[in-house]
Amino acid sequence: MAIVEVRNLTRTYKQGNLKVPALRGIDLDIEPGEFTVLMGPSGSGKTTLLNQIGALDIPDGGSIKVEGKELAGMKKSDLAKLRLERIGFVFQAYNLIPVLTAYENAEFVLLMQGKSKAERKSKVMDTLKTVGLEGMEHRRPTELSGGQQQRVAVARAIAGGPALVLADEPTANLDSATGYELIETMKKLNEEHGVTFVFATHDPKVMEHARRIVRLVDGKIEEDNHK
């Protein structure tokens, strides 16, 4: 069964008196274990689609299922539970909590999930090691480079054991070499741990690693290529 099923999805935004269509009838399935890129120029709808899949925004029409559950009509509390337990997020701006250490940032989702202290410690330490931050757990974001901060964000996204990780322009604020290392880390998580990734990006480094590239233009899927 597909982790994500999108059918005839539409989303329109209002800009003053104008209506601007962001998504125009999108159909898309994401299978377990995919490493997929949504690409396209600015305004193509890739971030909007990612936000819809992550239940961060509400569509105007169509349907989205995550692990077989239809998002439309779900209570806000149920959507929050879905995001907490089944979906990890990595954002362009890292979105780390500045007063918390790398350990505490990575631990945050596990705290929200109600995991025990021992379980949290074991999972966080393993996850930080996996993303190459062993020994840096006590550093706060201001004591970390941009690449290290984004690795903390990846650790936070995967620590809770989600079925799906959504990454919106995760390399945009990183230099070329650091961005490449981050994508290598996420590819390793995909191959060795089976984490499903969907990216919204126009970064060639990310596309180079993708096994599937979905190209959006003006809110429609123009190409869907599997490598």
Number of helices: 7
Q: What is the domain tally?
A: 1
Element string (H = helix, E = strand): EEEHEEHEHHHEHEHEE
Query: What is the first-to-last residue Cα distance?
Result: 21 Å
Strand order of the largest sheet: 6-7-8-3-9-10
| CATH fold field value | Rossmann fold
Gross geometry: globular
Task: Just name the CATH architecture.
Answer: 3-Layer(aba) Sandwich
Helicity level: 25-40%
Radius of gyration: 17 Å
Class, according to the CATH hierarchy?
Alpha Beta
Low-confidence stretches: none
Assembly state (oligomeric): single chain
| Strand coverage percent | 25-35%
Annotated CATH homologous superfamily: P-loop containing nucleotide triphosphate hydrolases
Mean pLDDT: 93
Which secondary structure elements does this structure contain, and how are they paired or packed?
Elements: E1 4-15, E2 18-30, E3 35-39, H1 46-53, E4 61-66, E5 69-70, H2 76-86, E6 87-90, H3 102-113, H4 117-130, H5 146-159, E7 164-168, H6 176-193, E8 196-200, H7 204-209, E9 212-217, E10 220-226
Parallel strand pairs: 3-8, 3-9, 6-7, 7-8
Antiparallel strand pairs: 1-2, 1-4, 4-5, 9-10
Helix pairs in contact: 3-4, 3-5, 4-5, 5-6
Structure, explained:
The protein contains 7 helices and 10 strands. The chain has a single domain (33-51, 75-226), classed as 3-Layer(aba) Sandwich (Rossmann fold). A hairpin with a 2-residue loop joins strand 1 and strand 2. A 6-stranded mixed β-sheet has the order 6-7-8-3-9-10. A 4-stranded antiparallel β-sheet has the order 2-1-4-5, covered by helices on one side. It has helices at 46-53, 76-86, 102-113, 117-130, 146-159, 176-193, 204-209; strands at residues 4-15, 18-30, 35-39, 61-66, 69-70, 87-90, 164-168, 196-200, 212-217, 220-226.
